Amino acid sequence: MSHFKITTKLVHIIRIIRTHSFSILSEILYSAFPHDVLPNIVGFYGMQTGTISTGMALVKAVDPKFQSNTTDNLVIGSGTALLFGFPFLNIPVVGYVQDQPIMYVYTMLALIIYFTALLGGILWRTRKNNDIRS
Fold first, then answer.
1. Are 59 and 39 within 8 A, CB to CB?
2. Residue 118: CB partners within 8 Å, gap ≥ 6?
3. Which distant-in-sequence residues (6+ apart) come within 8 Å of 36 by Cβ?
């Protein structure tokens, strides 16, 4: 399979995921943060647009006194994403330079595993906090 065909298929998969990401994010955050739903949804949506400052500005609009834990989540999430996400940016570059398009598939699989681990951590933390509150 040629480099162009693999890239085209991955672009289509990414478009589908991006199209549905806000609804998926809303469902995940609603179950993970039942007390601060709106600030978390708005903040994480702002983060999806590319920068932490956008997420923080949107959170300030709905939570002007920062009474929710959303700002802590955004700052910790950004640091974690930078630490663990940076290597994922290099894998496709290596695949492009060495003309190995299979590296794009490896990157996509690594990102899916990474997202699943983060989601599991959020849900585990939420259940743990809910057990403490009960």
1. yes
2. 80
3. 63, 68, 69, 70
Q: Residue 42 in contact with residue 58, Cβ under 8 Å?
A: yes
Tokens of 32: 């993970």
Of the candidates 58, 47, 56, 53, which has an alpha carbon nearest to the alpha carbon of residue 25? 47
With beta carbons less than 8 A apart as the criterion, state whether 62 and 38 touch. Answer: yes
User: CA-CA distance, 98 to 43, in Å (whole number)?
Assistant: 38
What does each of the 134 residues of the chain score in pLDDT, given as a tens digit? Answer: 566 666 677 777 777 776 676 677 777 777 777 788 888 888 888 887 777 888 888 889 988 888 888 888 888 877 777 777 777 777 777 788 888 888 888 888 888 888 888 888 888 877 776 666 65
Comparing CA positions, the residue from 2, 44, 39 lying closest to residue 23 is 44
